[in-house]
Specification:
Layout lengths: L9 H12 L5 E3 L19 E6 L2 E6 L2 E7 L2
Parallel strand pairs: 1-2
Antiparallel strand pairs: 2-3, 3-4
Length: 73
């Protein structure tokens, strides 16, 4: 699968950095299961957490720590 590049506008990256500087947290929601590697343009943002969403639930992870796990059944 090819790595997608330049899919996030520089203005969005700058907004993320400014939000973090103002104390906000940046969380990547994958829309899929948790991923081990973030590639391409997505790897240029310093995320505070990653949220993986699956058909039957979701997981929020900061580093290697799982903050919450939601099961929908």
């Amino acid at each position: 699968m090819p790595i997608m590049k330049d899919i996030i506008p520089n203005s969005a990256k700058q907004s993320d950095s400014k939000a973090q500087a103002n104390g906000h947290k940046i969380i990547l929601c994958t829309g899929r299961q948790l991923v081990r590697n973030i590639n391409g343009d997505l790897a240029t943002i310093d995320y505070d957490a990653i949220r993986g969403v699956r058909a039957l639930g979701a997981v929020t992870k900061v580093g290697e720590t799982i903050l919450d796990r939601v099961c929908l059944f």
